[in-house]
Amino acid sequence: MIVFRWLVRFIFKMSGWQVEGDRPAGLQQAVLVGAPHTSNWDLFYTLGLMYTLNLKFRFLIKSEALVFPFTSILHAMGAFPVERKRLGANSVEQIAKVFEDGQECFLCIAPEGTRKPVQTWKTGFYHIARAAKVPILVGFLDCQQKKVHIGDIIDSALSEAEVMGRLKVLLEKAHAKKPENFVLPQTF
Fold first, then answer.
1. Exposed, middle or buried: residue 2 (CB in 10 Å: 0-12, 13-18, 19+)?
2. Which of 14, 50, 175, 188 maximizes the CB count within 10 A of its CB?
3. pLDDT at position 88
4. pLDDT single digits (tens) 50-70
């Protein structure tokens, strides 16, 4: 896995991508909300960010994506499979348990929930952060300038409407790989 991390960092840097920002000092656990999510390449950019900053992370992935021969690789990369047909309050509690051991952990979640354009974003990231009592760390892509931005914090103790409003303002600077698939929600 060390070779894979090195390879991703190398390709990330050689392709002209940069990290803008850093992990806030002392932050060991957070739900990392990443957007826009419009392409399969978004996972590569996220891996480039995480490996460049040496962050220990997990990411949610639809369980259908864990197929042979990629299952072991995705698990080693930090994949946390989610059965989308059985989502609910119980899923939030289960996912929030990734933070229980107190170890460094950044759980990456795309609020759109899909690569297709959506008018309403999912709020599971908020409920997971609130249940785990960890902050929300915001990261976003700027595919025009080949930058991955990270560093803004939103307190998960705020109301859902406040969190989503702040997130929307921060993500206005994001530029998607497929701009036609990135829609900032108008209401929550």
1. exposed
2. 50
3. 57
4. 888 888 888 877 778 778 888
CA distance 3 to 87: 35
Long-range interactions of 150-159: CB distance < 8 A, separation 24+: 150/19, 150/20, 150/21, 150/22, 150/23, 150/32, 150/49, 150/53, 151/21, 151/22, 151/23, 151/24, 152/21, 153/24, 153/27, 153/30, 156/31, 156/126, 156/129, 156/130, 157/130
| Segments of the chain scoring below 50 in pLDDT | none
